[in-house]
Design a protein that fits this description.
Blueprint lengths: L2 E5 L4 H12 L3 E6 L7 H10 L4 E4 L5 H10 L5 E4 L6 H6 L1 H18 L4 E8 L23 H19 L3 E8 L1 E3 L18 H9 L6 E4 L11 E2 L1 E3 H17 L6 E6 L5 E2 H12 L5 E4 L14 H7 L7 H17 L3
The structure holds UDP-4-deoxy-4-formamido-beta-L-arabinopyranose (WQD).
C-alpha cells in the first residue's frame, strides 16, 4: 500500500486530508510540532477513521532529525507538505520567523529525500495578489506579495519549480488554495484558530456562539455588488479530496512535466455580506455586524478558474456555501461542549 507522509497533519487542512487519504486506502504517517495545532486532533482522527494515526513529533527545521526520520521511514512513497506558518498579520510583525520556518522545513524535507520524491505543496491564491483578470487562471502572473507569509508561498513555488527543472526525480504539484472554510461532518475536526481569529468564518462562528462581539465587515466601498470584498470560499473537505487527486496524478505519471500548479477553489466568488447572510440562513442564527474600514493588505476580489483542476486533476468542489456554514457552526458548538 502506498504510504503518504503528511507534514502538519494535525492542522486544519492537514487533518481533513489525513481522513480523505485513509478513505482512499492510503497508509498515512503524520509529522507535526504542534506549533499551530492541538495533539487532541490525533485522537479525533482515530475516532473518525478507526485507525490510530502513525505520528512522529518533529520540528522540520532540524535538518539532522528530518534526515533521520526519512531514513527510518524509507517506505514513504509521497509527501503532502502542509507544515508552515500561515498567519498573514503575524508574518508582517515577525518576518524572519516566517522565512526561517517556511523555507528551512521545505528544503530540509527535499534534501532528506535526496530530491527523489513526489511532493504536493500547500500554496495559496495569495500569490496572485489582486488579479487583473477574473476568474484567475494558473497562468496568471504572480504579483508582489502583500505580506511575508504570501512571499514565502511565492518563493517556495520558485524553489520547487527551479529544483524540478534540474532534477527529474523530484515531482511536485503546487496547490493554490482559495479560502478554506467549514469542518468535517462529524464536527470532530475543524479550524482551531489560536487567540482572536483573523479569518472571517471562525470569527463569525465565535461571534455567533457569544465568544466574540459583533463582526466588523472590513469595508463596504469596494467595487462589488454590495461593496464588501469577494473571495472564493471552498469547503475544507473538498480541498482535502483534491490532495488525494493530486497524489493519484503523481502516482499515475500522467503529467508531461514534473512541476504542475492547480487552483483549488469553487470558481464562484461570494461577498462578505453574502457569507454573513448565508450563515444566518443555513444556521438560523442572527449575526451582529458593523461596517468598518478596509483591512490593510486586503485585496478587493478574487475567485478561481478551476477548469485545469477539473480537466487534469479530475477534481471539482462539490459542497456548497450552505454546507460550509452549517459544518463550521456544528464544529463551533462541538468546541463549546468539548474545549480543546
Ligand atoms: C476573508 C474576507 C476580509 C475577517 C487569508 C490568506 C490566505 C489564507 C486565508 C492561509 C476578507 C473579510 C475577515 C473579519 C472581515 N491564509 N473579513 N471581517 O484574507 O482572504 O485570506 O486567509 O491559509 O492565503 O491570504 O481571508 O478570512 O481573513 O478574509 O470583513 O473579521 O473577509 O476583509 O475580505 P483572506 P480572511
Amino acid at each position: 500500500m502506498a504510504k503518504i507522509l503528511v507534514t502538519g497533519g494535525t492542522g486544519f487542512i492537514g487533518s481533513h486530508t489525513v481522513v480523505e487519504l485513509h478513505n482512499a486506502g492510503y497508509e498515512v504517517i503524520i509529522v507535526d510540532d504542534f506549533s499551530n495545532s492541538n495533539p487532541k486532533i490525533l485522537q479525533q482522527l482515530e475516532t473518525i477513521t478507526g485507525v490510530k494515526p502513525a505520528f512522529v513529533e518533529l520540528d522540520l527545521c532540524d535538518e539532522a532529525k528530518v534526515k533521520d526520520f526519512v531514513k527510518q521511514h524509507s517506505d514513504i512513497t509521497g509527501v503532502i507538505h502542509f507544515a508552515a506558518f500561515k498567519a498573514v498579520g503575524e508574518s508582517v510583525q515577525q518576518p524572519l520567523k516566517y522565512y526561517r520556518n517556511n523555507f528551512y522545513s521545505l528544503i530540509n524535507l527535499i534534501n532528506a529525500f535526496n530530491s527523489n520524491i513526489s511532493l504536493v505543496f500547500s500554496s495559496s491564491c495569495t500569490v496572485y495578489g489582486q488579479p487583473d483578470v477574473l476568474p484567475v487562471t494558473e497562468s496568471a502572473p504572480t504579483k508582489k506579495a502583500e505580506s511575508p507569509y504570501g512571499n514565502t508561498k511565492q518563493i517556495a513555488e520558485e524553489i520547487l519549480q527551479e529544483s524540478c527543472a534540474v532534477t527529474p526525480t523530484l515531482k511536485v504539484t503546487s496547490l493554490r488554495y482559495f479560502n478554506p472554510v467549514g469542518a468535517h461532518h462529524t464536527a470532530l475536526i475543524g479550524e482551531l484558530p489560536i487567540g482572536v481569529p483573523q479569518n472571517l468564518i471562525p470569527f463569525i462562528t465565535q461571534s455567533a456562539i457569544g465568544k466574540r462581539g459583533p463582526i466588523t465587515v472590513y469595508g463596504n466601498d469596494y467595487d462589488t455588488p454590495d461593496g464588501s470584498a469577494i473571495r472564493d470560499y471552498i469547503h475544507v473537505v473538498d480541498l482535502a479530496k483534491a490532495h488525494v487527486a493530486a497524489i493519484k496524478r503523481l502516482e499515475s505519471n500522467k503529467a508531461s512535466t514534473n512541476y504542475e500548479v492547480f487552483n483549488l477553489g469553487t470558481g464562484k466568488g461570494s461577498t462578505v455580506l453574502e457569507i454573513i447572510k448565508a450563515f444566518e440562513q443555513s444556521t438560523g442564527v442572527k449575526l451582529n455586524y458593523t461596517i468598518g474600514a478596509r483591512r490593510e493588505g486586503d485585496i478587493e476580489k478574487v475567485w478561481g478558474d478551476v477548469t485545469k483542476s477539473a480537466n487534469e486533476l479530475g477534481w471539482k468542489a462539490e459542497l456548497d456555501v450552505n454546507e460550509m456554514m452549517s459544518s463550521a457552526w456544528k464544529w463551533e458548538k462541538y468546541l463549546q461542549d468539548n474545549p480543546f
